[in-house]
Write a structure and sequence with these properties.
The protein contains twelve helices and three strands; from the N terminus they run αααααααααααββαβ. The chain is mainly α. The chain has two domains: 309 residues, ABC transporter type 1, transmembrane domain (ABC transporter transmembrane region fold), CATH 1.20.1560.10; 72 residues, P-loop containing nucleotide triphosphate hydrolases (Rossmann fold), CATH 3.40.50.300. The protein has a three-stranded antiparallel beta sheet with strand order 2-1-3, covered by helices on one side. Strand 1 and strand 2 form a beta hairpin. Helix 1 packs antiparallel against helix 2. The two termini are 49 Å apart. About 1% of the residues have low confidence.
Length: 396
Amino acid sequence: MWKLKSYLKPYWKSALLAPMLMLIEVYMDLLQPKLMAHIVNDGIMKGNLSLIQNTGLQMIGIALIGLIGGAGCTVFSSISSQNFGADVRNDLFQKVQSLSFRHLDQMNTGSLITRLTNDVIQVQTFVQMILRVLVRSPLLVIGSLTMAIVISLRLTLILVFAVPALFIVLFFLIRLSYPLFAKVQTRLDRVNTVLQENLSGIRVVKAFVRSEYERRRFAHANRDTTENAVKAGRIVALNMPIMMLIMNVSIVAVLWYGGLQSWNGSLSIGDLIAFINYVIQLLFAMLMLGNMLSFVSRAQASAERVNEVFVLESEINDLKKLKQEDAFHSGELIFENVSFAYDNVQKDFVLQDISFRAEPGQTIAILGATGAGKSSLVNLIPRFYDTTSGTLTEPT
């Protein structure tokens, strides 16, 4: 996914403003529990009504500032991610246009459609989350943990067990779900391929009464995709209950131990309330990261599929050497010991040692059974494919 970072460079201003505005929102959220503790300790416990009113107004103002920061982050992260996705999609389309037919045969139409649409959207969504949620959650975790330590170091020891447990759960769930989401995207390729072939050949399907066959074919591809999606969903579904269990146990432990400290007079009620709020903020930030689990896994799988297209190099790479006038041919072609194989590795030749000369005005018949290579031979003339060996030239 890191290979696509260059597409964010043209929009670095909005990409930078988004996390900065989110920092403002997080800072405002971290102030609220502290002000609440001030109201309880110095306002309610001492009967100071004016302090309660003034501090309450401060909390409202801070909440409004946080709202502005959060809304601004959403706006600028959307600008960055949407333009990022548009540029990736545009370059991906241009890359597909430059690929040779051999690559297009290996990477079928359905797969390319999926990569240009669904895969790009997955990566685009992840970019927006990086600029918003993946900034907010870590900042909340660090800020809440710091404020909790300031209030009570002994109570914070409870989090020493809770936070690592949450990270371990996240690590294993991401590791297990990533390969499953990669399979889901591959199966989605198959669904799009079957759909594209059916729609483009719908007249033939109806003419030969093959609707039932096509229905079974699509149902099989669709069922295969669903089964893989369910397997991935089962792994991700474990995230919420496990995270909630750890979070609730941690809160109960804080209430029990913090209540004892408050009863003994070593911790004020207001500080206990503030500490509980910081713990809830921290654990909910971790829960938010857990909810992003499926998006991270999907985006990683999709980014690799997008990069698979970008790294392909067309076999026909000397077109820049051609001049405009080279497009006008005399009509004479010479095949000299031409051999051709769709698979250059196995060298399973479709054509082998073909030699002939076609002169202007001459009619040449190409005869052969189905699969003999007639279409392959014709496809070599407009250079849809390059010859495996031999030459195809036009005399000057």
